[in-house]
Design goal:
- The structure holds two protein chains of two kinds.
- Chain A is mainly alpha-helical.
- Chain A has one domain.
- Chain A has five helices and no strands.
- In chain A, helix 1 packs antiparallel against helix 2.
- Chain B is mostly helical.
- Chain B has one domain.
- In chain B, helix 2 crosses helix 3.
- The longest helix of chain B has 22 residues.
- Classes of the chains: A mainly alpha, B mainly alpha.
- At the A-B interface, helix 3 and helix 5 of A face helix 3 and helix 4 of B.
Chain lengths: 139, 96
């Protein structure tokens, strides 16, 4: 299936979402990376990253992303989320080396953000395409 | 009639439980609140108290919260077919 088979999409929507796309990406990573100094964090930034999948689906509803592979990546990040505090926090490493505390928070925020983003992305794609490709809504 | 009676029973039990728990309500000293608000910057080197609680004081909570998300996705993948698993007339494709 290529883009010629798709129903006509609103030009306003395409242009606006295409313009906002990099800004959404930037905002998501900004919220994740600054999670330990400003309001926000991994969960919030990850949700914004998942909004990228929704935006892409709205303007270009083609089922070309492998949600199985996304799920594999998401499980890898989940394992890292479980392993990192076990190695760093629960062993007392962070307590003995206070200079690594900010780094630990940054790593955890990035891992949680990517994991939540991929996870919500898998959910959105699965719901969006479960009736098959080509059944899209139009504005 | 039975529906009404059982509804009334449920409502009465609800009010009873709320009342009993209200009788034994105790005002706790805000020890933990004061500790966290006073010490989170020196403990965790962060200016965001929510991050300090999520990723330092309550790390177990965050870990299992993330696991709950995974459980939700696994259940969804189990019950929602992907387009590859469906025939064009929206039936399950036979395996193998």
């Amino acid at each position: 299936m290529n883009s010629a088979d798709l129903p006509d999409q609103s030009l306003i929507l395409e242009v606006v979402v295409g313009f906002l796309y990099p800004f959404m990406l930037m905002l998501g990573f900004f919220i994740i990376v600054n999670g330990h100094h400003t309001p926000g964090g991994g969960f919030q930034g990850g949700s914004i990253l998942a909004a990228l999948f929704i935006a892409r689906y709205i303007i270009f509803p083609v089922h070309d992303m492998n949600s199985e592979r996304m799920h594999v990546f998401q499980r890898v990040f989940l394992a890292l989320i479980l392993i990192t505090p076990m190695l760093l926090l629960f062993t007392g490493f962070i307590h003995r080396n206070p200079e690594y505390r900010s780094l630990y928070l940054l790593i955890m925020n990035v891992l949680i953000g990517l994991q939540v983003g991929l996870e919500l992305g898998v959910a959105v794609l699965r719901f969006a395409f479960f009736e098959g490709v080509g059944k899209t809504w139009r504005l | 009639m039975r529906t009404l009676l059982s509804g009334l029973l449920v409502l009465a039990m609800f009010i009873l439980v709320i009342h009993v728990s209200h009788l034994h309500a105790e005002a706790h000293e805000p020890t933990l609140f004061q500790y966290v608000t006073n010490n989170y910057e020196s403990d965790c080197h962060t200016t965001n108290a929510v991050t300090a609680i999520l990723l330092n004081y309550r790390m177990y909570d965050t870990m299992f919260e993330v696991l709950i998300l995974l459980t939700a996705i696994i259940g969804m993948k189990q019950f929602l077919p992907s387009p590859d698993e469906l025939t064009p007339d929206h039936r399950w494709r036979k395996k193998g």
